[in-house]
Amino acid sequence: MSNNTKLRRRIVRKRLSINFKRLILFYLVSISTVIIFSLLIRQILSKPSHQAKNTTHPPTSQVRDPQPIVSTVTNSTGIKNVNNLPITTNETNNNSGQPAIYSNINRVNNLPITTNETNKNLGATVNISSNMRIIPEDDYTQVGLKLISQQDLTQFPRNHDQKLQNIVNYIVNYVTSKGASTKDLSISLVDLNSQTYAGYEDEVTRFPASVTKLFWMVYLYGTKPNLLQQPEIQKALNKMIQDSDNESASLIIDKTTRTESGDELTTEEFQKWYKNRLSMNHFFKEDGYQNINISQKLYPYSKVNGPAGRDLQIRKPDSHPLPIRNYTTTYNVARLLFEIETGESVSKQYSRNMKNLLQRSLKKEEWEKIEFNHIAGFFGEGLPEDAQLFSKMGWNFQTRNDAAIIVSPDGKAKYILVVFGNHPSFYKDKKMLPEISRQVYDYMTTIY
């Protein structure tokens, strides 16, 4: 073979090798380009969906998810974060076989769980909402009311339950999706069958509105039950609880504390009057309730549109931009309802009497005739007619609250639900609490 022939063959082989490498490089570049473009397209398509989800959050939630207001007590034990809530679009929860509630709503991370450890000293410190002012403890000492630190000696459930906590978290997610303020939301949920508890911001002091009347009812039975022998007082109690009548509530406060409304008092006179009003708080504090003020009347009633004279003095408007108003927590309200349900509130007989006063008919033809009923816009509207409801709601133009013992027709599902929404967004949305109630009821009746 000639040298020229050998040279040509080497040149051909080299060219083939180069062309083969070029072909491989071409395919690699092409495949890489396709992969990169597909990733870019996927990112572009997913971006609007993410933005759409963010638009459902209220202004307070756009910067960060709702965070627990943690007291020094809870700091010492630590509050766990719930970062893996089972949100599923199936009919049942993939993890537990339970109904998927609010499956179309974004998960809210870092929700507080009330554990056994954190519950040991519930109420030991005061968590104050931004629009709330607390009565100084010195006020009790100054008027001669010695506060004895008492533990909660009731059998109120201390055991945290993850299933209950999931439904509480779902409520928070639902409220977020409605554009309402979770910063102004508190929830307590008690399963009366399993004696377990879950909550969200349940130790934050909030304005209870007419839910305060639950405490006034218990105070009447606990300190002046003999007054109930008077037809006037029995009638006032019925109207205060069944109709949420403010004038009747005013009368009960006057009679039980001997602190009638009137003109402004001198310092010495006011201290005596103030002591008697604070005795309502003192009554519950001695029984282990914390973060509570039920010493002020609710308005309007009769021709009185707002506090005046001594009822204005008690709010101490001159010493602070924020007046002192009534306040309590959903935990306190849940505990009070638990004591009524279990016969621990004052006595078994009085507990039965109080529970009977709280019973509401869910038959639409009965409640819709009442102008200010306890059903429309509250828990009862979301329940079936054959369920049992024992409740006390409260509202004003800044607030929508409800607190209830709810029992299924077969009695298998029995629970306490308390929700406080201290923001105009809750007042305006009259479908929010009924929908929350419906979803909780569906969940509780499914697990039994």
| Proper CATH architecture of the domain at 156-208 and 329-447 | 3-Layer(aba) Sandwich
The biggest beta sheet, please?
A: 7 strands, mixed
Low-confidence stretches: 46-125
Distance between the termini: 95 Å
List how many beta strands DSSP finds: 9
Helix content: 40-55%
Beta-strand percentage range: 5-15%
> How are the strands ordered across the major sheet?
2-4-3-9-8-7-6
Transmembrane segments: 23-45
Protein name: Serine hydrolase
Organism: Anabaenopsis elenkinii CCIBt3563
Domain Beta-lactamase class A catalytic: 230-420
Explain what the structure shows.
By secondary structure, this protein is an alpha+beta fold. Among the domains are: 172 residues, Beta-lactamase (3-Layer(aba) Sandwich); 119 residues, no CATH class. It contains 15 helices and nine strands. A seven-stranded mixed beta sheet has the order 2-4-3-9-8-7-6, sandwiched between helices. Helix 6 runs parallel beside helix 8, helix 7 packs across helix 8 and helix 11 crosses helix 12. It starts with a helix and ends with a helix. It holds the Pfam family Beta-lactamase2. It comes from Anabaenopsis elenkinii CCIBt3563. One of its GO terms (molecular function) is beta-lactamase activity.
